[in-house]
Design a protein that fits this description.
The chain is α+β, with helices and mostly antiparallel strands. It contains 3 helices and 9 strands. The two termini are 27 Å apart.
């Protein structure tokens, strides 16, 4: 049995294209919350590993607000399929990997009632590595798994880039029904 599930066909194709157009406006950079976080999460030997954190914390611009709206919709649809009730979105992070880039193994949250949703915007040969399994990216599909599971993102080898959003949600610990 897998420690993850996949939800397909989340957004209409025109919405996915529109979302990609919005993401193109982000200034991708290395996300650095703290030195400890940075040292544990990123391979500093790589010349570039693009990430853009989008939060609800002010100040955020119009692009970030629009991306937050899409993240909320994606999270709601995925959690409904997974029969999870969202208490709040803990984090939204947009990831851009170029050929040959990869992240270090990490967890997104230690608590049991947190789940990670990894939504792919493009089909490519990059993947999520989770429990020694490679789960390849398919456009408009989301992988959902407990946030406390060790995992990492791996960029493509043939395709030019891998683009996805990582959404960490806090869920109701008892009720597993979605609103």
């Amino acid at each position: 049995m897998h420690s993850y599930s996949i939800v397909k066909d989340i957004l209409p194709p025109d919405a996915v294209r529109y979302l990609i157009d919005i993401v193109k406006r982000l200034n991708f950079r290395i996300a650095n919350d703290s030195d400890e976080y940075f040292n544990n999460l990123f391979n500093k030997d790589l010349p570039f590993q693009g990430m853009s954190r989008v939060t609800n914390e002010p100040p955020i611009g119009e692009t970030e607000m629009r991306l937050n709206d899409f993240g909320f919709i994606i999270a709601q649809i995925v959690c409904k399929h997974a029969n999870l009730k969202i208490l709040r979105i803990h984090r939204l992070m947009w990831n851009f990997y170029k050929k040959g880039e990869y992240g270090n193994f990490h967890i997104d949250e230690k608590k049991d009632n947190f789940y990670t949703i990894l939504y792919s915007l493009n089909t490519n040969d990059g993947y999520l590595e989770l429990d020694k399994e490679k789960i390849f990216d398919v456009a408009d599909e989301a992988k959902i798994f407990p946030s406390k599971i060790l995992h990492r993102g791996v960029g493509p080898t043939k395709d030019n880039f891998r683009l996805n959003v990582n959404i960490v949600v806090e869920t109701a610990p008892v009720s597993r029904s979605c609103t």
